[in-house]
Amino acid sequence: MAGKALCYGELLWDIIDGKPYIGGAPFNLAGHAAKMGCNTWMLSRVGKDDLGRDTLQKVGEIGVHADFLQIDEQRPTGTAIVSLDENKVPVYEFPDNVAYQYIDVDDSVIEKIRGQGIDLFYFGTLIQRNPVARRSVERILEECSFPHVFLDVNIRFNFCDAEVLKNSFAHATIVKLNDDEVKLVGDKLYGCPDEIPLIQSLFDDYGIQIILVTKGKDGCTVYTRDRHEDINECVSKAVDTVGAGDSFSAGFISAYLNGDEVFKAARKGNILSDFVASSHGAIPEYTERLYNRLEAIR
Question: Does the keyword Kinase apply (predicted)?
Answer without folding.
Answer: yes
